[in-house]
Design goal:
This protein has 158 residues and is mainly α. Helices cover 53% and strands 0% of the residues. It is built from seven helices and no strands. The longest helix has 27 residues. It is elongated, with a radius of gyration of 29 Å. The N and C termini lie far apart (94 Å).
């Protein structure tokens, strides 16, 4: 790559005129290329960041994470970070499940829960009706308030 190429030149307004940057995402391939450029030592992290336009902090983080993944630095590898995030999501979901079951009275002694009023209370409380139905093993359609049967001509007694 040629650093004097027009695609690497930056003509941006001063930082004070631009305001805060919108959050952007970069592909793993782009990050790997940026890390490789920084590791070669031809240009500083600041120069690479200026030419390619991610923040300097982001580039430093990518380089640091690449060093951890390569075993050159202590810390959580990318796969360990992914696993930790997945475990935290699962833990949060399980805590929510326990709270739903507690509210339903299934984790404490006492009267069994009546499903329809409980589901309605969950809905009114802004909780996940879908998850409550899954835990109570009822369909979402069946969780709607029961409609009393309408007496037809065969059911009426005179």
């Amino acid at each position: 790559m040629c650093w004097s190429s027009p695609i690497f030149r930056c003509s941006r307004a001063p930082t004070a005129l631009r305001g805060p940057r919108p959050r952007r995402s970069f592909t793993p391939e782009f990050k790997a290329e940026i890390v490789e450029l920084c590791r070669r030592g031809d240009r500083s992290v600041g120069q690479v960041a200026k030419y390619f336009d991610p923040t300097e902090t982001a580039v430093r983080d990518w380089v640091r994470q690449a060093e951890v993944d390569a075993g050159e630095r202590d810390g959580l590898t990318s796969s360990e970070r992914e696993e930790l995030a997945q475990l935290r999501r699962e833990n949060r979901r399980l805590r929510e499940d326990v709270e739903i079951l507690k509210r339903a009275g299934l984790l404490r002694e006492g009267d069994p829960v009546t499903v329809h009023p409980f589901i309605e209370a969950e809905k009114q409380g802004g909780h996940s009706v879908k998850r409550a139905c899954e835990l109570l093993k009822v369909s979402r359609a069946a969780s709607a308030a029961p409609v009393p049967p309408v007496p037809g001509p065969c059911r009426t007694r005179s």
